[in-house]
Design brief:
The complex is a heterotrimer of chains A (223), B (138) and C (221). Chain A has 223 residues and is an alpha/beta fold. Chain A has ten helices and five strands; from the N terminus they run βαβαβαβαβαααααα. Chain B contains five helices and six strands; from the N terminus they run βαββαβαβαβα.
């Protein structure tokens, strides 16, 4: 981690989540504070500053989105990571469009929390551009694919393609989405496009080989 | 403290006791049960996650991020469920250490041979009874 | 050939009858006492009443000499364990398991079952072959045509693609009764999102049929 001791605030109405995160970050070089709801979080923000906020979207009273809007406006230097329940990735994607820079899905492992915090704190600066860039769209698409929200993943992939139509990665993801959606012929088509654009692209080559193999089973496409 | 990620299936007497204790010791625990009311067995010591679902469905195990688990404990009240999901956890999700509770001692050996660590309560109790008797004789 | 069939349903009876007619030696293991009696009256097969995933009853059923074990019980886990015990403890060379969750087909093969059969998957395939690629199929007219059941396929460009059901502007008294995606059939809720190639079972009345089709697959209908 970059700072000598980073201050982190965890905002969640569930005691379990606050505890799990506090335990997970015990040995990391950071100081943990918690808030049980949006109102308390804003109170604490007024008293001191934090490098990072881990924020649950669903809370009674002032909910996560309201907190996020306020924070993006008043404390633009603080980074926000969203905590989201299974099956609500769409909300997290909306939150990222409002300025959150990461999201993590429940349940999470201690290592996931540590990785996310380390990654986020290591990022030099936060870019809150109105439109997301190619890499961000790809990253979102990958996360949506792992969360099995294929429709939203498809939209992110298409957004990436619109930005850089001659780059291969997004076509590989598009192939993976079709493969997971049970459309092997569509999947093949997109893997081929990815390979045409970049003949050295190993992931697409592997995916194409696998989806063309009639005896293939039980392997997931590589993203 | 090195914290582990532990998936437990079945929140009955044994499952909830394991979840409460592991959680108290600071481990990160996810517990799955298809009957939501069993989560009432969790005490305030429990600080992990609960998932309401049938662990014989791959989708539910995926939701629990089983592929990231350090340990997997199959302790539902049904032997066949435990044996099936223990194998799935080990072979499909690659969990390094998998333990299954199996009531019927007749099935213990064969699954031990298949690489599943089986805990048989009757055999464990018998061992302790016999040890205690032996100690009393000595 | 010696075949052991495990289970209590009608399939067990008809499969056994068919195999007996071919001259196979059949043993049925069933937990259900009434079924056991019924089978033994109607079939020239050996009946063992007991738990088919208990090694004791597999042995009693002659698993050591069986060429094949067919597990047709009502849960996937029972069928898996019966097959594994037959193979690992008694050396049965081929095992067949009925599965309910189609995702288990691959899992069971990895766990050593020779053949895993998913009814949902087979039905899905058969239906798909039957319907081919027609976009609209009228399946049934009920009450002299006052209610119609229609199947439609979401071809590329259909306006419903990507929408959750609650976002669709369906006329009153029309509904989407089922969504068939791959091998899965779901009864949708308002949150269910539609994808390209989904097949929908529509329940409509003559006066709202056209409007329903337009809302789902677009103009020209």
């Amino acid at each position: 981690m970059t700072d000598p001791k980073s201050k982190i605030i965890v905002v969640d109405d569930e005691r379990n989540i606050r505890l799990t995160i506090s335990y997970a970050l015990e040995d990391a070089n950071c100081e943990i504070d918690t808030a049980v709801n949006g109102e308390e979080a804003l109170q604490k923000l007024r008293e001191q500053s934090y490098a990072l906020m881990l924020l649950d979207l669903r809370m009674p009273g002032m909910d996560g989105i309201d907190v996020l809007r306020y924070v993006a406006d008043q404390y633009p230097d603080m980074r926000v990571v969203i905590i989201t329940a299974h099956g609500t990735v769409q909300n997290a994607v909306e939150a990222m469009k409002l300025g959150a820079i990461e999201f993590i899905q429940k349940p999470f492992t201690p290592q996931e929390i540590r990785d996310v915090v380390a990654n986020v704190l290591a990022r030099e600066s936060i870019e809150r551009k109105p439109g997301l860039d190619y890499e961000t769209h790809l990253e979102l698409a990958k996360r949506l694919i792992s969360a099995r929200d294929l429709y939203a993943a498809m939209k992110e992939t298409q957004a990436a393609i619109a930005i850089a139509p001659s780059r291969a990665e997004a076509f590989n993801l598009l192939g993976a989405i079709h493969e997971l959606n049970g459309e092997p012929s569509q999947a093949k088509k997109h893997y081929r496009v990815a390979l045409d654009l970049d003949p050295t692209f190993a992931l697409a080559r592997d995916n194409l080989a696998r989806v063309s193999d009639r005896n293939r089973r039980f392997e997931r496409p590589r993203l | 403290m090195s914290q582990h990620y532990i998936v437990i299936t079945g929140c009955g007497r044994l499952g909830s006791m394991l979840a409460n204790r592991l959680s108290r010791d600071g481990e990160s625990v996810v517990i799955i049960d298809r009957d939501e009311s069993t989560f009432d067995n969790l005490t305030s010591e429990f600080s992990g996650f609960t998932i309401h679902g049938d662990a014989t469905e791959l989708e539910v195990l995926r939701q629990a991020k089983t592929e990231r688990a350090d340990y997997f404990l199959a302790v539902t009240s049904n032997d066949n469920v435990n044996l099936m999901i223990a194998q799935v956890a080990k072979l499909i999700f690659g969990v390094p250490l998998v333990l299954a509770r199996v009531f019927d001692p007749a099935r213990e050996d064969i699954y031990a041979q298949l690489g599943i660590n089986v805990v048989c309560p009757a055999r464990l109790s018998a061992d302790i009874f016999l040890q205690t008797l032996k100690a009393a004789e000595d | 050939m010696r075949v052991i069939i495990i289970g209590a349903g009608k399939t067990v009876y008809y499969l056994a009858r068919r195999f007996v007619a071919k001259g196979y030696r059949i043993t049925i293991i069933t937990r259900d006492a009434a079924k056991a009696q019924q089978f033994s009256r109607k079939l020239s097969a050996t009946i063992v009443q007991g738990n088919g995933s208990d090694p004791q009853f597999l042995e009693e059923a002659g698993a050591r000499r069986a060429s094949i074990v067919v597990a047709l019980q009502s849960t996937d886990q029972d069928n898996l364990i019966s097959c594994q015990l037959a193979k690992e403890m008694f050396g049965v060379p081929r095992t067949v398991a009925l599965i309910h969750d189609p995702e288990n087909a691959e899992v069971f093969k990895k766990l050593g079952v020779t053949v895993a059969i998913s009814v949902a998957q087979m039905l899905g395939q058969v239906i798909e072959e039957q319907v081919g690629y027609e976009e609209i199929i009228n399946l049934a007219a009920i009450e002299q045509g006052r209610v119609n059941i229609t199947e439609v396929v979401l071809m590329p460009g259909a306006p419903a693609i990507g929408c959750a059901l609650r976002e669709l502007k369906l006329p009153q008294n029309a509904l989407i009764g089922a969504v068939i995606r791959q091998d899965d059939v779901t009864v949708p809720s308002g949150e269910t999102r539609l994808f390209e190639s989904d097949r929908l079972l529509l329940i409509t009345q003559p006066h709202n049929h056209g409007a329903t089709l337009r809302a789902i697959i677009g103009e020209g209908h």
